[in-house]
Design brief:
Blueprint lengths: L2 H6 L3 H12 L4 H11 L4 H13 L2 H18 L4 H19 L2 H10 L7 H10 L4 H29 L1
Helix pairs in contact: 2-3, 2-4, 3-4, 3-9, 4-9, 5-8, 5-9, 6-8, 7-8, 7-9, 8-9
Length: 161
């Protein structure tokens, strides 16, 4: 099957909903891939949609999150606790990444467990002052690895039924 046939055979609504679900923090592709498969996408299409969705917010987080937090502290002081919690999480997770830098960032993002993933990896990269040019490929590689793992788990689960 060539690429155009694959596009024509893919449900665009399910594909786009998988992209959107995978953009959400906490859910990311760990939820997006099973979501896409449950909505009729092939495992490959769900994987592609989830990776795309998971990666869309990453550059913006790495580049702008510190400015956003600073703005929130100035203009929305009632959200200081939320900002404190997110900053503390980034610093705590950042300790695990600091020793190995970009390789550590990739491994951290690749682990498909709660509290890891693209969003947290991007937060860590921002708070460790990692450059976007170097952190983006590391996060992308981690997202791909996590995507392969989640797709494998989803495939195994759905093949049982």
């Amino acid at each position: 099957m060539d690429f155009l046939q694959w596009i024509n055979n893919t449900d665009l609504g399910a594909f786009l909903s998988t992209v959107v679900v995978s953009m959400a923090p906490v859910l990311e592709l760990r939820f997006g891939i099973p979501w896409g498969v449950a909505h009729g996408l092939s495992h490959f299409a769900a994987f592609v949609a989830a990776v795309i969705g998971n990666m869309i917010p990453i550059p913006f987080i790495v580049v702008y999150i510190r400015r956003i937090f600073k703005w929130m502290r100035r203009h929305l002081p009632q959200l200081d606790r939320v900002v404190d919690k997110l900053e503390a999480k980034a610093h705590l997770k950042g300790r695990k990444v600091t020793k190995y830098r970009y390789l550590g960032l990739m491994i951290f993002v690749a682990i498909p467990l709660p509290g890891t993933g693209g969003w947290t990896g991007a937060l860590v990269a921002a708070f460790l002052d990692m450059s976007l040019r170097k952190s983006l490929p590391a996060i992308f590689a981690g997202v791909l690895i996590a995507g392969f793992l989640i797709t494998g788990i989803t495939f195994g689960f759905t093949s049982i039924f």
